[in-house]
Amino acid sequence: MTESPEHLTILPEMQLEGFASGDLLSQVLAQMRLTGDCVYSATVEPGERLMLDCNSAHVCMLQAGQLRIQRDDQPATLIEPGDVFLLPHTLDDLRLSAGDSPTTVAVCRFWFDAGSFRAMLFALPWLIHIQQADAAPWSEGLLHFMLLEAHDVQPGGALMVSRLIDLAVIRVLRTWVQQGAASGWLGGLSDARIARVLRAIHEQPRQQWRIEALAKLAGMSRSSFCERFSALVGRAPLRYQNEWRLTLAKTMLATHPSRIGDVGFAVGYESEAAFSRAYKAFFGRSPREDHSSRSVVGELHR
What pLDDT band is residue 185 in, cutting at 50, 70 and 90? Predict the structure, then answer.
């Protein structure tokens, strides 16, 4: 297939504009979509448990008292006033209990949308804890605004709450990365060699990368590169590339009026059939189904 096939209705360079731009962290966070629906303050008596929705994710700020968070038999994490913590996964095996005094927690409930970048979500630990000294410059004002919106019955309030929760989650992740404490995929940002490779994969999704070329870009031997990349990112390099391509494609199908074959070509697949097979294997549904869903939504909004 040539670089600029005549049958394309929109050139790949135009299709990818806005989908793989900006700094590396922004590129991934743009593919990590979430919906928040609830902000509230909860007060827990000494020794009692803080009950949260086990099937949702949460970002919370401790307003008063102390909170102990424990998972299975692991040592408990002590949360102090002003600390912010993110619980990105389901809470089946977590225990959150108040200390020796009444404890008040601001709770923001949300869930990650099905189309979010899976390699990103899988890499998140069960708890991200930002202490008050690092959170204070942004958390207090943001929390105050969220609680105001939560009690505001004016039109648009639900959307405001969801967007503010989105902002809070992004801010927690940014602070976590800046601290150098990030693990999994985000930990790759702190390794300059792996970050160069990630940036190349993100910015050139059509490129048919080989392991040797990626290792050369990182300035490492083939074996050392594969081991380091997999340890930090949690995925083998080419598997990560494939998941990134398909995540971009899903976003493009949902937001852009391109044909399915054009989208597949834009992210590096040489035929619509190959793209459709890979898409269905990863998402469990064909790109045509997602493309049709977009068309139906468009008709409803006309």
Answer: low
The residue-averaged pLDDT of 121-144 equals 87
- Regarding whether 164 and 38 lie in a shared domain, the answer is yes
d(CA 282, CA 160): 32
For residue 172, the enclosing domain spans 32-183
The whole-angstrom separation of Cα 288 and Cα 125 is 34
237 within 8 A of 185, measured Cβ to Cβ: no
Give yes or no for a contact between 106 and 59, defined as CB atoms under 8 angstroms apart.
Answer: no
In a domain, 66, yes or no: yes
List the one residue out of 230, 170, 158 whose CA is nearest residue 32.
170
Q: Kindly report which listed range (15-29, 30-44, 62-76, 175-189) carries the lowest average pLDDT score.
A: 15-29
User: Sheet holding 77-79: strands in order across?
Assistant: 77-79, 67-71, 94-98
Nearby residues of 9 by Cβ (< 8 Å), 6 or more positions away: 258, 259, 262
Same domain, 140 and 83: yes
Amino acid found at 80: E
- Closest to 275 in 3D by CA, of 286, 149, 284: 286
156: number of CA atoms within 13 Å, CB side? 2
Q: In which band, very low, low, confident or very high, does the pLDDT at 105 lie, cut at 50, 70 and 90?
A: very high
d(CA 96, CA 79): 10
In this structure, are 16 and 39 located in the same domain? no
Domain co-membership, 161 together with 221: no
Sheet holding 103-112, edge to edge: 34-44, 103-112, 57-64, 84-87, 128-130
CB 287 within 8 A of CB 263: yes
Across all residues in the chain, what is the average pLDDT?
82
Bridge partners, residue 105, by sequence = 42, 62
Looking at the chain, how many residues does it have?
302
